[in-house]
Fold this sequence. Notes:
53% of the residues lie in helices and 10% in strands. By secondary structure, it is an alpha+beta fold.
Amino acid sequence: MTGWRVGYVTAPSAIIKAMLPIHHGMNICAPAVSQWAALAALKGPHDWFDDILKEYSHRRQLWMRNLDEMGLTYGKPQGAYYIIFDVASTGLTSQEFAAAARNEAQVVVGGGVGATGAAYQHMNRGSFAVPTERIEEGLSRLRPMIAKYQEQRG
């Protein structure tokens, strides 16, 4: 249900009371189809999801292992279907890195990750939502490009 934006909060009543005016103004009501889909997701069987979680865990480990080997730091994902990694060691900004990845390695990564400010200028995003073989291929294409920029930087 990515993008359908359905959720709930469990908190002490004082926090819920403080949240209500903000919540009401921003989210008067989720569309009916989203509400029905959320209900089905909560009440329906969940065993079909076990294999998906296992595969996404494998992809997450693949990304982390390769980023470690390439000398790039990252935030360990704890539920997302993407990983945010720091490309400062390449000397490129996130947008420059995304362009270089696309043009030099024919790999698409997220650049800029939607955040602003100096703390995010070197952060890029890699996805777990593509087949494992594509991730492996993309990481193998990125490896020499990253090494080249790290070498140039000294």
